[in-house]
Amino acid sequence: MAKYVLLYQGGTVPQTPEEGKKVTDAWMAWFGASGDAILDAGNAFGAETAEGADIPASRVNGYSIVQAGSTGEVEGLLKGHPHLSAGGRIEIHETVEM
User: Fold this and answer.
1) To pair with 41 at 20 to 30 A between CA atoms, which of 27, 57, 68, 89?
2) Exposed (0-12), middle (13-18) or buried (19+): which is 98, by Cβ within 10 Å?
3) Cα(3)–Cα(67) distance, rounded to whole angstroms?
4) How far is Cα 98 from Cα 87, in angstroms, rounded to an integer?
5) Could you read off the pLDDT of 25-54 as tens digits, one per residue?
6) What is the rounded CA–CA span in Å between residue 8 and residue 52?
7) 24: Cβ–Cβ under 8 A, 6 or more apart, which residues?
8) For residues 8 and 90, is the Cβ–Cβ distance under 8 A?
9) Which residues neighbour 79 within 8 Å (Cβ) at sequence distance 6 or greater?
């Protein structure tokens, strides 16, 4: 099984505590349905800074780490993902052992 980093971009922010609870419940349901594929539920990102080449910021606002047999399996896991339902985008990056 390979490890994949999911990078979350965009999406909407809940405007009320009730909306926040619905979003949290949807994420917990997705984590539960994904089972052992979830290696690290991840975190949201705060303020960003960068060093080096002048490359536009990626605007990533969080991540998760999953394991799967293929990118296609990861895409299957993302069906009904709450971040996609909120208008966001998820980048899938397969990790490479060094």
Assistant:
1) 57
2) exposed
3) 4
4) 34
5) 999 999 999 999 999 999 999 988 888 998
6) 23
7) none
8) yes
9) none
Quickly tell me which residue has 């397969």 as its tokens: 94
Q: What pTM was estimated for this model as a whole?
A: 0.90
- DSSP result, 14-31: --SHHHHHHHHHHHHHHH
The amino acid occupying position 56 is P
Contacts of 9 (CB under 8 A, 6+ apart): 58, 59, 60, 61, 88, 89, 90, 91
Angstrom distance (rounded) from CA 21 to CA 82: 12
- The residue assigned the tokens 């089972």 is 35
Q: Distance between CA atoms of 69 and 53, rounded to whole angstroms?
A: 34
What would the two tokens of residue 11 be?
Answer: 């999406």
- pLDDT tens, position by position, 46-57: 988 888 998 887
